[in-house]
Model the fold of this input.
Amino acid sequence: MSSWRNRGHAGYWAFLVHRLSGLALVVFLPAHFLALSQAIRGAGELDAFLAWTRAPAVVASEIAIVFALAVHLTGGLRLLFIEFVGWKSEAQKALIAVAGGVAAFCAIAFALNVV
Amino acid sequence: MSARAESRLWLAQRASAAVLALCVAMHLATMIIAVRGGLTAAAILGRTRGSALWAAFYALFVLAVATHASIGLRTIAAEWLGWRGRAADGAFAGIGLALAALGAYAIVAVIR
Done:
């Protein structure tokens, strides 16, 4: 999968996006848990943190991480179907596009509500 | 690691992925709706505090993500860094447990 020969393939890019989005989510996750843990000291502490998240750079990062989450979900669903339903149709390229499109829709919907 | 243990990890990765598909879809929908009009501690905690349903949902979510992430990282380390063996297995099991512990702490913070 990682040889240069395969790099023009939609499947290779889907693999790379799935892996990089997964890595981004793993890096984000401990910070997400620690942020929510602020509530252990009361709503005031959590509100102070939430005020910080309204900075434009943080909002942009949130939109990016929502896209990473959504694209990891849709790409992962495609992989589960391939592995367990044997879904290896000619339409893989279109399915990859749909996975990206649904993820972009989620990120845009989040962005429109958060901004 | 034995072939049997490897295949168990493969299955755990896929089973946790299936659970996560439902949890993440729910989480995305909740997030997209919840951020309308700005996120406040009162809104978040008003939804979660004392809710056995949200506690059960997040417990399942954290367990699945700790499993999925640690096995996924182990695969990436083996394929991209060539890091495998007992030390790597121990490190990624530790990462999984640390994620589960952090997640459990966050659940307690928003539910109790």
